[in-house]
Amino acid sequence: MIYGIGTDIAKVSRFEKWVRDDDLLSRFFADAERCAASPRNIASASQHYAVRFAAKEAFAKALGTGFAGLSLKDMWVVNDESGNPSLAFGEDTRRILAERVGPCAVHLSLSHEKEFATAFVVIEKEGGGDVRECL
Hints:
Elements: E1 2-11, H1 16-19, H2 22-28, H3 42-63, E2 75-79, E3 85-89, H4 91-100, E4 104-112, E5 116-125
Antiparallel strand pairs: 1-5, 2-3, 4-5
């Protein structure tokens, strides 16, 4: 059963300033998702952060809370050995998921192009078939 869906789009150029400002990055991104950017790699790093920020926004929309009670650093994008992205959660976000949704799966799709990055999240509540538990 679908609990919620969320989508977000981010303009990649907005994150060029963030890539150059370690304070901004440390405020919004977990250590696990931070990357080193050389001056030649600004565009790639900007896409990296834009799509991850969009994933966090899409998750908050799917949960239905916005960012009330959530920390951007308590959720991060991870990739499996095949490169497929998923969201990982810290203790506080896991607690909020448990309270609001219960056992569930969180599905994530990411895409980026030169100018834009987008993310789509589906939170699937247990009881809707073959669901991997996210808690």
